[in-house]
Fold:
Amino acid sequence: MSPAAPTPVPPSAPASAPPAGTSRPAPRLLDWRVRFGALALVWGFSFLFIKVGTEGFAPLQVAFGRLLFGTAVLAAALVVKRDRLPRGARVWGHLAVAAFLLNALPFSLFAYAELTIPSTLAGICNATTPLWGMLLSLVALSEDRPTRVRAAGLGIGFVGVLTVLGAWQGFSGLDVTGTALALLASFSYAVGWIHVRRTLAGTGVSNLSLAGSQVGLATLQLAVVTPLFTSAPESVELLPLLAVCALGALGTGYAMLLQYGIVAEVGPTTASMVTYFIPVIAATAGVTLLGEQFGWNTPVGAVVVLAGAALTQARTSRRRTTPPAEAAVPAPEAPEPSPALPKPATCA
Structure:
């Protein structure tokens, strides 16, 4: 849902041209803009699916079902593409940590949060992931140097958060616990992406293989935890069950496959723009389909949050130092795994 993440919210595969001698990907049946819109819709509706799912299942059961159906879709994709699973205990160890920070923990926190807060507010909290990501990257990633623009974006973004929460009213009418859980979920996405960038970039394993393995590990993690803290529901209602199925198969599995194709075709920068559509769609779905209400400060604050998040992703242009002849053939970059986010883009 992550997604929406500081990096490809998600948030990916490099946007550079393929090395000489390699073939370009086969043309897609659908234009990337259509798939981009589908991705935004799926991740935006994920918060509605969570809300409906918690009406029939415990939060941990919603998160586990989401991961289970998402794993099934990604496993099928791995079989179709004949992709191999990663090798090496070190890679699997880092994937287990990423599975917890990017999937098991935030998925569970969002489900618990939506017991007491609207899906609209949860979607807006998800949009804070780039803000947390920039704040953490200044400490954890030496290559991320602060600039005035990015620092301003960080400040503006958190002003937007305070506006959404109605800080001048003393947060009256706001469920503090639920909101804190949603913000903690977004923070977990950011921490998870820092971990991924530091440990799993350049492993030589495909993004699909890494993501499928990561989601599978998260499923196993919640398979152990969920029975310890929940009991089987007395009856299974159809609508919550369908919501969990859609949340997993579409919002976790199919959405990731869509994101891979978009990143490969137009690059991670354009693909990460989906982050800014997710809260708009989540708010629209919550108001029109669930009858949720919010004050003027919620949409205004959401716009401020998104503006700040956009500024934190700004990069200063670097002066070219290589001769034109050398720059004409770019060297292949080390792939970065796509989120099972936020997030990247942030996976909702």
Remarks:
- Residues 2-23, 317-345 have pLDDT under 50 and may be disordered.
- The longest strand covers residues 2-4.
- The CA atoms of residues 138 and 145 lie 7 Å apart.
